[in-house]
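Here's what a typical entry looks like (Putative glutathione S-transferase):
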Amino acid sequence: MTETTQDERPEHGTGGTYSVPGQEYARDTRYITTRIVADPAPGSDDVAVEPGRFRLVAARACPWANRTIIVRRLLGLEDVLSLGLCGPVHDARSWTFDLDPGGRDPVLGIERIQEAYFRRDPEYPRGITVPAIVDERTGAVVTNDFAQITLDLSTQWRAFHREGAPDLLPPAHREELDAVMRHVYTEVNNGVYRCGFAGSQEAYDAAYDRLWTALDGLEARLTDRRYLVGDTITEADVRLFTTLVRFDAVYHGHFKCNRQKLTELPALWAYARDLFQTPGFGDTVDFWQIKQHYYRVHTDINPSGIVPDGPDLSGWATPHGREALGGRPFGDGTPPGPVRAGERVDPEHTPLR
């Protein structure tokens, strides 16, 4: 959704083409690789971390953007990195700020994130994607490399983390973490898209088998351990969560990932509820926006544009029992505080209210 995929390229949008007949889905991963780092190397185009200078532009509908919102909140970067939120439905040009008064981002003053891309490069040829970090001084996008953004928030922005912020990339587990995160991305995060955007029966069948092989493996892995790596929440859990929380609402039906619902996978369902009920996770999730986005934007997959009323999402609030597996969610740290005013999910859009 937020990677440079077919659905976010400038020529696509509502009513666009997401599934190419006869082809398997291949994600376009060309991003702006500029980084925001603590100490930019001489001669690089990287930019120095500076509190109050940058704005994270995201969309609650999007799993890749949701990842950055979660990490920002867990690390307590709200006062350092501001947050702009696009609405759930983008058009052929780009995501828009239609939820803001007057349809403009109140800080950047723009109607579309496309404008920030064009301020960096008037001929910008790639996908207009979220998440993106924008320099508030120039109004130009600095980076949209979503995978690197969260890694840098944990490592390069460390001086500005809140007191008690968790270590989402613990060095003692980093090698295992990198392997697990790579597996989660290729097989699950991107795997649901390979199913949903498959252009042939053969491509779909292969994608479906590959996805469920991975999910079965994760079900087994999480049966006797609370988190994916070690005994604390890490970025690997953030990355898996954003797909799982969308699974029954959109991927099961809309993307035909329908061997089973998440609610029918005991370990994964309990694991997902455990995270959802942990501060920093479920309080960033807007199920209404998620459903609006997938069912209304992918019109070649859902030509009617009808958004289903179901499924019943009240189960997300039920006890999960994962405490019995031990673990320390925030390690030696503490949970984040209450969600900031102006960043709260509409209570009508979440089962926890």
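Residues 1-14 have pLDDT under 50 and may be disordered.

More examples are in the samples folder.
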